[in-house]
Structures are given as C-alpha cells and as structure tokens.
Amino acid sequence: xxxxxxxxxxxxxxxxxxxxxxxxxxxxxxxxxxxxxxxxxxxxxxxxxxxxxxxxxxxxxxxxxxxxxxxxxxxxxxxxxxxxxxxxxxxxxxxxxxxxxxxxxxxxxxxxxxxxxxxxxxxxxxxxxxxxxxxxxxxxxxxxxxxxxxxxxxxxxxxxxxxxxxxxxxxxxxxxxxxxxxxxxxxxxxxxxxxxxxxxxxxxxxxxxxxxxxxxxxxxxxxxxxxxxxxxxxxxxxxxxxxxxxxxxxxxxxxxxxxxxxxxxxxxxxxxxxxxxxxxxxxxxxxxxxxxxxxxxxxxxxxxxxxxxxxxxxxxxxxxxxxxxxxxxxxxxxxxxxxxxxxxxxxxxxxxxxxxxxxxxxxxxxxxxxxxxxxxxxxxxxxxxxxxxxxxxxxxxxxxxxxxxxxxxxxxxxxxxxxxxxxxxxxxxxxxxxxxxxxxxxxxxxxxxxxxxxxxxxxxxxxxxxxxxxxxxxxxxxxxxxxxxxxxxxxxxxxxxxxxxxxxxxxxxxxxxxxxxxxxxxxxxxxxxxxxxxxxxxxxxxxxxxxxxxxxxxx
Length: 555
Description:
By secondary structure, the protein is α/β, with parallel strands linked by helices. It has 15 helices and 19 strands. The chain has a 5-stranded mixed beta sheet, with helices on both faces.
C-alpha cells in the first residue's frame, strides 16, 4: 500500500513528501534558500528537531545557525559532544566530572575532575576525538523516559546534580540525549548529529579550558579567544561563593528552600555583597585623589541601587558622595545621531555633549561652582534650572552611565582622579554541571519584571527590544569592561527563585501567535526548574528590590 503524501510549504514554495519523511531530509531540499546551516524547524511558533517525521500538511520555516535560537542549539549540542569526548578520553568507567562553569570571551569555561592532568596534550586528544565524531557524523539520539527512570539512570552514572534536580520537576517524562553509549540530559533542542558541529576551538585557561564557538552573527567563524582576566576572576570568585554556600546548582538551591534554610542563605548572600561594596569603598577611600567614581554596566545590572549602597559605604569612610547623571548631558534631540534605520541612537557616545560634560567636571576639579543641567525628555532639550554644584574637600561625584568606562567620555580628567567600576549580574548558578544559566537570561528576567511594574511595558515588548539592547551593550560597554579598577557581580544566588513569581504571569500573557512566544516558552520551561519563594525575606536595600519593588531607596 502506497504511503500518503503531504504538502510542505517553506518560504512560499510547496513540495510533496511521503508520510514519515524525516524533516532533516526536507531541510536539505530547502537548504539553498537559506544562507546558513539549517538546525531546527518551526511551525506555528513551535520549535521542533529535524529528527521529527512528517505526518500532515504543514507550513513552516527553518531555524539556522545564523539565528539566535539556532546558535543556542549549536552551543548546547557542542556541550554534549565535548562531554562525550572527555569521557571517551578519561574512560567511562572512571566517571570523571566535567563542569561547564560560565561564559568567557565567546565560549564556555570548563573544568574536569579526573585522574588525568589538564594540559595541552589532554586538550589536543579531546579536540581530535571531537573532530573524529564530526567526521563520522555520530548521531545525537533522543529518547523519552519516565522521570523515575531518568532519576535512577542519573544515580547509576553518578550524575547526582541531575538526580536531585528532577526530584523537583512536575513533569512525568524526560528527554534524554545520547551519543553512542553516553547518555545525558540537556535543557533544550539538539542538532541531528555531530557533522553539524565543525566549528570550535579549545584553549587552556586557568585551572581548566575554554571551548570557543561561533556567534549567530558569523556562524562559521570561531572568534579569537580574548579573555577578560578581571571579569574571569570575578566569575571565579562568585563560583566559590556558591560553593561556600553549598549551592552550585538549581537542585542545591531547591533543597535549601524546601528544608526551610532559605532565609539564612539570603542573609549570607546579601552580607557577601555588602562586604564587597564595603571593600570597594575602602579602596576608594585609600586613594584620596579620587573625585569621580564612574559606574557602568549592561542593562538590568542594578547600577542604581549599587550606586546608593556604595554612597552609604563612602559616607561611612568620611566622604560625601553626590550623584551626577550622564543622561542630563544628552545633546538636544535634533542633534542626536540616527542609526541605520533612521531612529535616534541614544546609546552612542555622540548622543552625549562630551565637551560640556568634561568642561563641567574640570571646573569642579578646579574648585569652581558649576550649573548642572537637567535633560527634559519630553521636549528633547537640555535645561538649566538654577541647580549648582561645587566640590568640597571630602566631596566625590558618583557618575553612572553606559559610557563611563570609555575614556573618551572623560578625556580631560586626569587618571588619578577617576575610579571606574564595572557592574553586571553574572549568574553563578547553573541548572546542573552540564547546563549553564546564561547571564543574559537573568538580566532579561530582571528587566521584564521591572518594565512590567514601572513602565507599563509588557513581556512581549521587553523580549522584542532585547536584541537591540544587547547590540548596544556589545558596542558601548563590553569592550571597555577591563578598563575598570574593580568589578562587581550584582547577581544573587537565590534571585531566580524570587523572580519566578513575578516573571511567570507576564510570560504566560504572551500570545502564541507572537514572534516572541518561542522565547517566552523557553523562559517558562527554564523557570520550571526552580522552587519559587516569596519576597518577604529579601532585605529592603537588596539589589533585587530595584526590579521587584519595595526597596528603601527612591529609584
């Protein structure tokens, strides 16, 4: 009996295929219509893997390595191949522990706990094994098992973080991925086989190594490894904080919550942050020439609350801090540069009257009194309303703005009078040892919650504008982060369990027909790993209060 045939429409072109045809085969037929390698399919805002087979007429689009979602799939699949290769080199019976810690440069920093020494020879063997897997097109298989079976399997293989993680999941089924005899759990979709993963490099770094992979903007190019050493040390310190608290993974956090220990965990984490802020204030106090404290960081890092808390610590050291907003030095609206789409570009340096800004700060340094401007965002013009400023012996200016680490913003000021601080929410918690939590996810959830609460912006709008926000950060903030005198990690190890209560309702509000639904669904699945907690134990001066509300600072 002949098989039924179904119509598949892609980019306006319709072709017929037999029932049961694998979408990987269909993707090959349409590959010439796409600039980059097809990795996933998408129908009615629902992603699916290319191993899926055809059983009905459909209209769909394909996701490539040039899409952000496709790039995540590439990197996730690469992690599975990396862990498999390391186990092949170490020997599966020895159960070596591979930990994918955090993002460094354009890759992931990883450590391996095994009897073998971490050196170039070891890394060369791992790379060679990965390339062998690419050449032989080793399949990435998927099977769905009951959660109880998955927990037993994780216990057998010594994957205790995954074993404990799934004790808190409400789902009854779990998707497991395998390459030959090696089987693991990964949060998200995978490519069909290793031949899709040819682009990577491995670099020895610190106590482990970095796997460097392409970005979606250039999916066939492995970017050069450019470690930011100061940032790396902050990330490493934050990981040690988590280890000290006994919280390395989401399962650890969930256990603290369910055992009733979370209040103490919150207080200890907040105390660690306060100590760090106090250390920064002490460093500034030990440099009496410092008059300008410049703070920069990406969106939703908690810069405003950090500035308030730092100011309190500065006062405790005898200084008198005064806030100065760089935004008040915007050029008039008609003089604002425009981007390639013809929209005003408020994030470029040229949107700031840098000359006047430097003149005012230089005059303050020389003991002169200046008139401070206020930018009227309704009229798009700078105004002077009689507000003046003069620096006394113990006065310092606390200046916050996206360009504060760029010396072009403060080109007239002597280096000894400036103290630069980079702040970001560098998530130190991972789902498990092989599934990291991207720092950008934490910041996106923070912004989503704050925008819904204070700006009337819904979650769909926040997700839609996020790529533009990220591009501005890549251009104006990240290249200058190593210019900072100190770095501060504003992420709190418990915060995602709190944000869950605020983020889920607004994410559920995104309609399935919206382009942003795919990202909303991914974030909802991610939040489902967490046991939620209320905000009643979050201190009033916590950085988290900037986003959920109820803080003691007037923001």
